[in-house]
Design a protein that fits this description.
Layout lengths: L1 H26 L1 H9 L9 H11 L3 E6 L5 E7 L2 E7 L6 E3 L5 H12 L3 H30 L13 H31 L28 H4 L6 E5 L9 E6 L2 E6 L5 E6 L2 H14 L4 H11 L1 H5 L1
Antiparallel strand pairs: 1-2, 1-5, 2-3, 3-4, 5-6, 6-7, 7-8
Protein name: N-acetylglucosamine transferase
Pfam families: PepSY_TM (PF03929)
Keywords: Membrane, Transferase, Transmembrane, Transmembrane helix
Length: 305
């Protein structure tokens, strides 16, 4: 019964799960490549120091973002035109283009939705569910063949052609379960099937009404290590009622652009924190080595299909 439960879904979903596995394996290379290529902030650097360096060399600065890889990107206006660049944290100067990688964008569209919009996302979710089902039934079949869980890595008998599927499966199954389970979580989140649990700071009803405080002088930024930064969106200096929006790994809040006071703050909810972990586990962003391992395990799918 278990064998039939494993075989027939596998035959039906073979092409889809192979496509998702190969595209996922290819995507697993990008977080590691980005981590190696991006200039990294020195230990102990604060957001105040970083933003001060960037603002000094980029008049019209509008936003600073830090990716999980550590890459710092800035957006600003120059001569009325929007500009962006990867930033060297040591100097605040441009270190490269911030334009998205076209191959990565294409692979992401293929992997997430097969270029079919919401219908494609549902098909991809079905593929992840099939992979999870195949992994679960495969675990039972391998355990039966080797004589129990304690003998999971026991040597197999027989010709290589007959052993290859099991040899690959008992190594790759951990990664396949993790990748498919996190994919289903992300799909459920996309279609709003999970509790939102979102928390966002309330825009302040009152501000100081002043502008011009240097970013390097804002106390909240002076106390914040760059490693905890997600983004800093700057207030419009021509609008005294506007405020800076700071997002960190712990939450987000509005800062007064005139005196640097934290006007409102919202910590991440447990659901937001959990979703962030799931995203990291699935994409490898912020865990490049894990991403490479999962990508390597995913390459076993076309061999087993």
């Amino acid at each position: 019964m278990t064998r039939a439960f494993h075989r027939w879904p596998g035959l039906v979903a073979a092409l889809l799960v192979t496509l998702l596995a190969l595209s996922g394996a290819a995507l697993s290379l990008f977080p590691a490549a980005e981590r190696l290529a991006a200039p990294q902030a020195e230990a102990g650097l604060t957001v105040a120091e970083l933003s001060g360096r960037i603002a000094a060399s980029h008049p019209g600065l509008e936003q600073i973002r830090r990716a999980p890889s550590g890459r710092i990107t800035a957006w600003w206006f120059a001569d009325g035109q929007p500009q962006s660049a990867v930033i060297d944290p040591a100097t605040g100067l441009d270190a490269g283009s911030a334009d998205p990688n076209p191959l990565q964008r294409w692979l992401t569209g293929l992997h997430r939705s097969l270029f079919l919009g919401d219908a494609g996302r549902m098909v991809a979710a079905a593929g992840a569910a099939a992979m999870l089902l195949l992994s679960g039934s495969g675990i039972l079949l391998v355990a039966r063949r080797v004589g129990g869980w304690r003998h999971w890595f026991a040597p197999l008998r027989g010709p290589l052609a007959g052993r290859l599927h099991v040899e690959i499966a008992r190594i790759a199954v951990v990664g396949l379960v993790l990748s498919s389970a996190t994919a289903l979580w992300m799909s459920a989140s996309t279609f709003e099937l999970l509790p939102e649990g979102a928390s966002a700071p309330v825009f302040p009803a009152e501000v100081s009404g002043t502008t011009g405080l240097q970013l390097a002088a804002i106390p909240a930024l002076q106390a914040l290590p760059v490693a905890q930064l997600r983004s800093l969106s700057l207030a419009d200096p021509a609008d005294a009622t506007d405020a800076h929006l700071l997002k960190t790994s712990a939450g987000s809040g509005y800062l007064d652009q005139g005196n640097g006071e934290m006007l409102s703050w919202a910590a991440l909810s447990p659901w937001q924190s959990l979703s962030g972990i799931v995203m990291m586990l699935h994409t490898g962003r912020g865990a490049a080595v894990l991403g490479l391992l999962l990508g390597l395990m995913a390459l076993g799918v076309p061999v087993m299909a």
